[in-house]
């Protein structure tokens, strides 16, 4: 699967590059044809994202994902990651707020893996929640630091909450579903590899809250 992912990603990248060139250069193309080009480009990007997610998950499942653990300030790292998402939140009309104390929370983690966890959760919210508000917070207990990501979207049905971290599971199976059922599974795998926990609680049409905890450095 890892080799297959490599083989598929290369022609996809080439195809997307040519599609972008066509889209940018065809000034006199008809509206219908231009719309078709946009659809092709969007679907190619979705397929690329799926292949990348599949590649990541396969490496995790085969224990080939080598994490580089080091001590870093999870509060500061969270600020850096969130700053990259602000434009996407605003583009999707999501009112965002953050509660990150001005103190250091030192954890032994892989910085790239932590970013992938937050990225996958934020993508899930943008693609599925229909939320208009998002709140991110960090709190500390005696031995753990906890991250909460809450939105006011459509929520997750109670009977589905225990399955959302399983690979390829999707709550929304409509044709318009943008997800691939791997993002949250990858988030869970990465969290557990760094000795953390991840869970979700939700009330349909009220809120959804993702809770992540990591041990503090002794």
Beta strand %? 15-25%
Report the count of strand segments: 7
User: Numbering strands along the chain, what is their spatial order in the largest sheet?
Assistant: 2-4-5-7-6
**How would you spell out the order of helices and strands?**
HHEHHEEHEEHEE
So what's the overall shape? Answer: globular
> What integer value in Å does the Rg equal?
19 Å
Mean pLDDT reading:
84
Query: Biggest sheet, in brief?
Result: 5 strands, mixed
Total count of helical runs of at least 4 residues:
6
Low-pLDDT stretches: none
Distance between the termini: 39 Å
* Proportion of residues in helical segments: 40-55%
Structural class: alpha+beta
Quick overview of this protein structure:
The protein has helices at residues 2-25, 31-61, 74-83, 86-91, 111-129, 183-193; strands spanning 70-73, 95-99, 106-109, 133-140, 144-151, 197-203, 207-215.
